[in-house]
Amino acid sequence: MIKKGLLGLFLLLPLALNVSAADLVRKASTHDVKETMDKLEQIVKKKGLTVFARVDHAAGAKKVGMTLPDAEVLIFGSPKMGTLIMQSDIRTGLDLPLRVLVYQDADGKTWITYHNPQSLKESYGVGKVKALNKAEGALDKLTSAAAK
Questions:
Q1: Phi and psi for 10 in degrees, rounded to 5?
Q2: Of 109, 84, 98, 103, whose CA–CA distance to 141 is shortest?
Q3: Is residue 27 domain-resident?
Q4: What is the pLDDT of residues 16-72, one digit of tens each?
């Protein structure tokens, strides 16, 4: 009974958080997952942004006797920019700091994927927040540099 309830929760969670695949930005990388993520993390730090965490999903799966293709998430941001966005609606804190997923698909290709920060306008109705434009531009530049 508890397992079914948890499964239902996990299936409904994206709907509750207004998460949509339509707002995903996806870019091919010329490197493998580790090298792409290493480059991204280095670029992020060089730009003076804060790296909060780096999550290795494949390593986590391995610890519990399961397998996943290489997949890592970098959680990072600018407390100043994030605060400006959250001042419009504190609930945006559910989607901040920014997260970028780098993963390998079934064909062995490496992809960089993230939610476009502009989606926060629809999800939370935050309206015109200049920081969203800056976040969108920064994510594009950071991920494009890491992909090369």
A1: -65, -30
A2: 98
A3: yes
A4: 444 556 789 999 999 999 999 999 999 999 999 999 999 999 999 999 999 999 999
* Nearest-angstrom CA–CA distance, 112 and 101: 6
**d(C-alpha 101, C-alpha 55), whole Å:** 9
Q: Token pair of 80, please?
A: 């100043």
- State the Cα–Cα distance between residues 131 and 140, nearest whole angstrom: 14
CATH number for the domain harbouring residue 74: 3.30.310.70
CA distance 101 to 27: 11
Let me know if residue 87 belongs to a domain. Answer: yes
Which residue range forms the structural domain that includes residue 139?
21-147
Burial class for 19, CB neighbours closer than 10 Å (0-12, 13-18, 19+): middle
